[in-house]
Amino acid sequence: MMLFGMIFLGFLMNLKDFFNKANKGHWAIGHFNVSNLELLKAVVEAAREAGSPVMIGTSQGEREWLGLKSAVALVKAYKEDWPNIFLNADHTKSVEAIYDAVDAGYDSVHFDGSNLPFKENISETRRAVRYAKSKNKDISVEGELGYLKGDSQLTNKKIAITPDDYTKPEEALKFVNDTGIDRLAIAIGNVHGINLDEPELDFDLLEGIRKAIPKNVSLVLHAGSGIKDADIKHAISLGISNIHISTELRVLFRDGLERQLKGNPKEYALYRLEKEVVDSIKELIREKMRLFGCIGKAH
Ligand SMILES: [Zn+2]
Q1: CA of 271 to the centre of ligand 1 (A)
Q2: Range of the domain at 226
Q3: Ligand 1 centroid vs 91 CA: distance in angstroms?
Q4: 66, 78, 101, 192 from 57: Cα distances, Å
Q5: 209 phi and psi angles, rounded to 5 deg
Q6: CATH number, residue 88
Q7: Domain annotation covers residue 252
Q8: In a domain, 14, yes or no
Q9: How many structural domains does the chain have?
Q10: CA of 180 to the centre of ligand 1 (A)
Q11: Which residues contact 83 (CB under 8 A, 6 or more apart)?
């Protein structure tokens, strides 16, 4: 039994294996943010039913709410049913908070030094990479270059971005080489949240960055919620292999729950109120997975 278990474990792919597969096959791994059990359940069940690998994201705020150890324990428990799920510490703004996530047992960390001066972003990201890899050789580490505006909310505001905020190919190469990251988050016109205008992605710039950096480094597109499906597909064809979705899940959860509460004023069993909400979120995740081309890719 023990031996069988060990042989079985030998066939499991880690996150880096999946990224190699995605980069070669021109598809993308979805990254969905969660802050409660219902969202986590929706992501895991959708991934299992779709036969997809998936990343579960928790920003600093989201994981403070869930608790780092609880988040790791929950994902570990869900891995028994579907092992192809990977927990990421999304948008981590300090190296010390990276240490905490690595020590808690996260599968992946994202150090976001995009608001730091270039040199400092390199040195801090390198510290994060060194620590993470010294503790866990399978961990995947993401760095970020270029300034991503907005936060994961619905806004009526127009968010102004200038070419100065964009990732530059020459800097991307230096950044990747000097830090040793596995994934690079880039700013090519994407904006966090769902905004008044659909963002215009700079596809020439994306091509330039993809050509400039080594093939084994994956490119990450944050803020996927506000981007047109056709643009997502185009971005994947040009080398994006990881897409973040957060705001759409938040909106669906909040609006769905509101409808359930209004429609069932006498219902107090919370799980009954939440069932349809979770189902609608699963459906959205499945649609995104179809768009990302990752359905069935865990088999
Ligand atoms: Zn993001």
Answers
A1: 29
A2: 20-292
A3: 6
A4: 12, 15, 12, 15
A5: -65, -45
A6: 3.20.20.70
A7: yes
A8: no
A9: 1
A10: 20
A11: 12
Q: Give the pLDDT mean for 14-33.
A: 97
- The Å distance, Cα 54 to ligand 1 centre, comes to 16
Residue 10 located in a structural domain: no
pLDDT category of residue 155 using cuts at 50, 70 and 90: low
Q: What pLDDT, on the 0 to 100 scale, is given for residue 192?
A: 82
Single out the residue of 265, 177, 184, 179 nearest to residue 219, CA to CA: 184
Q: How many helices (H) and strands (E) does the chain have?
A: 12, 8
SS3 106: coil
Phi-psi region of 224 (alpha: psi -120 to 50; beta: other; left: phi over 0): alpha
Helix or strand holding residue 18 (H, E): helix 15-25
In angstroms, what is the span from residue 176 Cα to ligand 1's centroid?
A: 19
**Is residue 149 situated within a structural domain?**
yes
Active centre residues (catalytic): 90
Averaged over 206-226, what is the pLDDT? 95
Mean pLDDT to the nearest integer, 67-73: 98
Residue-wise pLDDT tens digits, 194-213: 766 678 899 999 999 999 99
- Dihedral, CA of residue 200, residue 226, residue 162 and residue 149, to nearest 10: -170
Nearby residues for ligand 1 (ion, Cβ within 5 Å): 222, 244
Q: Per residue in 229-243, pLDDT tens?
A: 999 999 999 999 999
Half-sphere exposure for 263 (CA within 13 Å, toward CB): 11
Cα 4 to middle of ligand 1, angstroms: 40
